[in-house]
Amino acid sequence: MSQTVDVGTPPAPPQDERVAQRSTLGRLMARPEIGALAGAIVIFIIFFIVAPPFRDASSLATVLYVSSTYGIPAVAVALLMIGGEFDLSAGVAVTASALVAAMLSYELSANMWVGVVVALVAALVIGFINGYLVVKTGIPSFLVTLGTFFMLRGLNLAVTKIVTGNVATNAVDDIQGFELGRKVFASTFNIGGVGIRITLLWWILFVAIATWVLLRTHVGNWIFAVGGSAASARAVGVPVNKVKIGLFMTVGFMAWFTGMHILFDFNTVQSGVGLGNEFIYIVAAVVGGCLLTGGYGSVIGAAIGAFIFGMTNQGIIYAGWNPDWFYFFLGALLLGAILLNNFIRSRAEASR
Amino acid sequence: MTTTAETKTETPLVRLTDAGKNYGNIIALQGVTLDVGASEVTCVLGDNGAGKSTLIKIIAGLHQHTNGSYEVEGEDVRFSSPREALDRGIATVYQDLAVVPLMPVWRNFFLGNEVRKGPAMDIAAMRKTAKQELLDMGIDLRDVDQPIGTLSGGERQCVAIARAVHFGAKVLILDEPTAALGVKQSGVVLRYIIQAKERGLGVIFITHNPHHAYPVGDNFLILKRGRSLGYWTKGEISMGELTGLMAGGAELEELTHELEEAGAESSGLREVAHVFEQEVAELHVGGQPTPPSGNIEVKRDPTQP
Known about the structure:
The complex is a heterodimer of chains A (about 350) and B (about 300). With about 350 residues, chain A is mostly helical. Chain A has 14 helices and two strands. The termini of chain B are far apart. At the A-B interface, α1, α9 and α10 of A face β8, α4 and α6 of B.
């Protein structure tokens, strides 16, 4: 290595200084979540001005709680999107895990945690099947998970009716282990007189772990690579299929976690809920800077996206506006985010 | 490795002797002999369908040869996967599979070979190494954090090559690295090939452009329809001969006639035929570089009403 070829390149120091100058503003602007952050600040200020109840600390706690219930699955959905795939079955998978846990424990008169663990296995299997079908058949994940979405939707309803004779599960709050489950998945604690839901802490933890994995570990490097160009990643020895299946299973895990929150919070589970939530997870990820085509994005961005969703969702109520307008705003937000992302992407790929 | 000949001739890094490949009863490649030693560039030239990609795939370990022999450092080998070839120091840089455009340069550089520190990556070391390695090879990047897609096509190829060199390649197979590049960009890649050679690597440079091959090559293999047309060292063949063999002078003439007949009523085709005529004429003269298209336009005018 001592024999390096000098081809008369100028010494580096002056150029490095130029980089240092650029990095303060330039690098910040190049972050995928910067657009979402700006949007979140604007929306926060708007509601702060127009909706007096929005200014209360307890309102903020509620907003954060709503954000966390969408933000937790959005963590995994964002990772999956960075890895270049979609999961339309995530919303009903949440319900499916909750149903499995509730019905299994109730019908078998088993400890609640048996149901919780079986539901986790079921959710991971759903994720594995999604991922396996996508990597083995090469069919776009949009179609594969659209299929599993409808299948799960049908299963949720049909199996629940067969087992309970009803569209909802029976109450499980008197089953052994329920109290512990509620503590872990759905408790509330007080900070300065404001009730904080535990999902907020879990959400922060999941975002931190996912961000660390994505930016600091080799697995994160692989996730970016399989989303950005699966063929190039494969050519340098990245296990593309394993990474993708792992990402689908991560979505399964987060869906399970959210399902457990619903179960222990509401005590019974409606078999028809969760429809359409998969789009909200995707919206959160896209608003947060994830590219639909993969290879670019951020988990923190998806968290900000979920926060924007939570603020808008609750803020419209606090402002006394007609909540019918909510989805209009959501759609407008999504369009704006996509336009911004396209702009960023074209800059990133400028010379292509 | 034990059978090293430390006398006057070194054992070549890669040697194919009369190698061939059949797919069932289809002969894809036949009678290919080539070698590449340390600090040598062996160019493989041929038109589309000449068998260049089959040859690469054999050397890179994607396919196995069915006839002849394939030796790495004097040892008979038969790779069953690209990973095995890589472990023997044979790295392939494919033209279109080189990099992930949206990822920063340093992440691309270490993709699949990340430096780990505990459960995490040693990012500072990776950044520094990527920058230094690229600098050593003559690419001075402002910032290894920029997406690699912002580099030019030639620079991207160079990063892919530098990566292969850094991870211990002894032999580089470059699959048409200049095919999609402009003149200036091609120059960057060609200069880089020479640098790899000066660092002691063997390079197998696949191209269909003799103007790119001749200045950097030490040995030349010309393939045509799965057969070797010959194998020369630089002293044995001139640029003109190489171009003539490569283009297949007689065939080009035939093509010109065909186009003229087919294009009697189409001025577009006539134009193409005329360009070919020009090229054939040049080949007979001795293979000077193709004149810019502007010249052809001027010469065409008097003959075309």
